[in-house]
UniProtKB/TrEMBL annotation:
Keywords: DNA integration, DNA recombination, DNA-binding. The keyword DNA-binding applies. PANTHER family: DNA-INVERTASE FROM LAMBDOID PROPHAGE, RESOLVASE HOMOLOG YNEB. The active site is at S10 (o-(5'-phospho-dna)-serine intermediate). It comes from Pseudosulfitobacter koreensis. Pfam families: HTH_7, Resolvase. This is Recombinase family protein. Belongs to the site-specific recombinase resolvase family. The keyword Aminoacyl-tRNA synthetase does not apply. Residues 2-136 form the Resolvase/invertase-type recombinase catalytic domain.
């Protein structure tokens, strides 16, 4: 049995260190991490690698359930994929494992609560933006990536993968910029 850790943050300016430290403290022999949105499984290459690597008896560990995904169905599908390989999933905070029957129930409920919480956050954010627009103070989100720099690198002959590595962002972000020139 191998303990395999998976850590994820949504943006390049967020830090993975707390998750990595928790996974190491739990004895994870292999830890894969990435900086990509958890809204869906698209673009989550490290998660795919972990799931592909799982063997019977292995344990996939995550610091929190929302590191696996933001949508209950996605989380349950990921857990199902792990179980199809004979592996199980353990969430460290709060501690719950799919190794027992009760773990499935608890993870399902936690996933539903996390999804509901995400909807509440989005609703409050949308309300705040609307209020700010009404008051004339909304300026939009802060740009984290130099769009002109990305375009210049593309015109200089770099591939999206090379640009992403150079700028420190995901290829998805590069493609978004390139598609909206």
């Amino acid at each position: 049995m191998t303990k395999i850790g998976y850590a994820r943050v949504s943006t390049t300016d967020q830090d993975l260190e707390v998750q990595l430290a928790k996974l190491k403290a739990q004895g994870c022999e292999i830890i894969r991490s990435e900086k990509v949105s958890g809204a869906s499984r698209d673009g989550r290459r490290e998660l795919k690698t972990v799931i592909d690597f799982l063997r019977p008896g292995d344990e996939l560990m995550v610091a929190r359930l929302d590191r696996l995904g933001r949508d209950t169905r996605d989380v349950l599908n990921i857990i199902h994929d792990c179980e199809q390989k004979g592996a199980f999933v353990t969430v460290l905070d709060p501690y719950v494992s799919t190794q027992g029957d009760m773990g499935h129930l608890v993870i399902t409920v936690l996933g539903m609560v996390a999804q509901m919480e995400r909807r509440f956050i989005k609703d409050r954010q949308r309300d705040g933006i609307e209020r700010a627009k009404t008051n004339g103070i909304y300026k939009g989100g802060k740009r984290r990536i130099d769009r002109e720099g990305v375009l210049a690198l593309k015109h200089g002959g770099m591939t999206p993968t090379q640009i992403a590595a150079e700028v420190g962002c995901s290829r998805m972000q590069v493609y978004r910029i390139l598609n909206h020139q």
